[in-house]
Design brief:
The chain is mainly beta. It has one domain: Porin. Helices cover 7% and strands 52% of the residues. A 16-stranded antiparallel β-barrel has the order 1-3-4-6-7-8-9-10-11-12-13-14-15-16-17-18. A hairpin with a 4-residue loop joins strand 4 and strand 5. It starts with a helix and ends with a strand.
Length: 359
């Protein structure tokens, strides 16, 4: 890993010093916290831990680059790794470049890329105030911060304030560890022509004061797939409708995620949310959000509320503290904290404080 980093830094310096038409950038986010979490099991046990998956944002490092090909055309690439700072290990199913790994071509017409990509669900849900946070919609639907696809061809085009995009995967997930980032659905001929295929599409509008997005995402199962999709005829679809407005510096964002999973037993749910981000001072930002997961024909619902304060020590370093609570009903056992556990039908409260540095 050290050799890879040294090679990347050397390449960046070389590229930027030898030609003005190409560049390579090393970048990243290091974010970690310590949290106290109640009711982690049926006995009501409380724990203190350093979370593994995220803090206010998931930790990562990466390389991205462009080369000017002339006539407004360019070559692009990105390699990005998710890091678990508590142990120094890799997240995203243990992949070396689990967040992104792609190369492509772009121009005024848009950009076409191929590799492991963030799909359009990830892009459409990006206006959520607590996107990527330890307490947020990723706790209610763990797919949201992991909306990425292997073996994928993608298109993204921005035309003034309008962005359109689509992805198509021939085998959406080759990792086998298990969980939302590794579901063992390699596709590409394994299990039939439609096995493990996935496609997503999106349109969105962004301006300084108003924006909105609509996306659709459908993933097919396969014979070895985990999380109940172990048949090529099964599928799991999500429709995201999101929007935001900015008023006197305060951002208000909300949305709806409708999910329908068609397996041996169908499942439908709606995830509603609304949140706000208020710049209290030049250095202090206060965020709050409430989310509701409603599972159709079931009492296994959950409501999550969170408030967070972030103080900027500099342009690159922030400290933060957050307080959250989730209320589970019926057979629901959704943890407030990403990757956490909770007793069935029990409420859970959490407090976390941490530091984030970008480079």
């Amino acid at each position: 890993m050290a050799a890879l980093l040294a090679c990347g830094i050397t390449s960046a310096v070389h590229a930027q010093n030898t030609t003005a038409s190409s560049s390579v950038t090393l970048y990243g986010i290091l974010d970690t916290s310590i949290e106290r979490l109640t009711n982690t099991n049926a006995a009501g046990t409380a724990i203190t831990r350093i979370p593994n998956l995220t803090g206010s944002l998931p930790s990562r490092f990466g390389f991205r680059g462009t080369e000017d090909l002339g006539n407004g055309q360019k070559a692009v690439f990105a390699l990005e790794s998710g890091i678990a700072l508590d142990t120094g290990s890799l997240n995203n199913g243990g992949r070396l470049f689990g967040r992104f790994a792609y190369v492509g071509l772009g121009g005024p017409w848009g950009t076409i890329t191929a590799g492991r990509l963030a799909n359009m669900t990830f892009v459409a849900a990006g206006s959520e105030i607590f996107g990527g946070n330890l307490y947020g919609n990723g706790s209610l639907d763990s797919y949201l911060p992991n909306a990425r696809s292997d073996n994928t061809i993608g298109y993204l085009g921005k035309f003034s304030d309008v962005t359109v995009g689509a992805t198509y995967s021939l085998g959406r997930d080759t990792a086998t560890i298990g969980g939302p980032t590794a579901t063992n659905c390699p596709g590409e001929g394994v299990g039939g022509a439609s096995a493990c295929r996935q496609w997503t599409a999106m349109a969105k509008y962004d301006s300084a004061t108003l924006g909105g997005a609509l996306s659709y995402d459908v993933m097919h199962g396969g014979p070895t797939a985990l999380l109940g999709l172990n048949n090529a005829n099964y599928d799991d679809s999500r429709t995201v409708l999101s929007g935001y407005t900015v008023w006197n510096g305060t951002k208000i964002a909300g949305g709806l995620l409708h999910r329908h999973r068609s397996t041996a037993t169908d499942l439908s749910s709606n995830l509603w949310y609304i949140g706000a981000s208020y710049p209290a001072t030049a250095a202090l930002t206060i965020d709050a959000q409430i989310s509701r997961l409603d599972v159709k024909n079931s009492d296994a619902d959950a409501t999550l509320a969170v408030v967070r304060g972030t103080y900027a020590l500099s342009k690159r370093t922030n400290v933060y503290a957050m307080l959250g609570h989730i209320r589970n009903s019926g057979a629901s056992a959704v943890s407030l904290s990403a990757g956490g556990t909770v007793g069935v039908g029990m409420g859970q409260s959490g407090f976390a404080t941490g530091v984030r540095h970008t480079f």
